[in-house]
Amino acid sequence: MHGNSAQLKEKVKSWLVEVPLNELEDTLLEKFLDEPSESAEKITDLLTKVKKKLQGTDNKRALKQLNRVLPLFERHEFWSTQPVIRVTDPTSQFNIPVEEKTLADVNTSPLPLPESYEWC
Questions:
Q1: Can you tell me the distance from the alpha carbon of 100 to that of 93, in angstroms, rounded to the nearest whole number?
Q2: Which of 33, 88, 96, 119 is a plausible cystine mate for 9, CB 3.0–4.6 Å?
Q3: Sign of the C-alpha dihedral, residues 29, 34, 87, 11?
């Protein structure tokens, strides 16, 4: 969940600071992060390839960072079908009021309660 693509790009770059990306990988990641909702699968593929490339090396910090970031973009069998906020969703669509009312719009008389209940 992010404010805009620039903020997400900045966060992902900070999360992957120890990961050695070549110029092509860095450029592709930048391009995919411009439209993260549509490119989540491409980001996953790119980071998976980088992870495979690093598995034969002693760069454990980079692998640890990749293992933390990769699940944020991967498709999950259960959670991908649920109405939950994902890291690729812009927060601007969620930070809106449900409904706006003035005091005059609110009913001042109490609602009827079932027998044996009372308002207090």
A1: 16
A2: 33
A3: positive
Q: At 2, phi and psi to the nearest 5?
A: -145, 165
**SS3 category, 99:** coil
The residue type found at 45 is D
Token pair belonging to 70 = 């990769």
Distance of CA 113 to the CA centre of its chain: 42
Give pTM, 2 decimals. 0.66
Residue 56 buriedness (CB in 10 A; 0-12 / 13-18 / 19+): exposed
3-class state of residue 40 by DSSP: helix
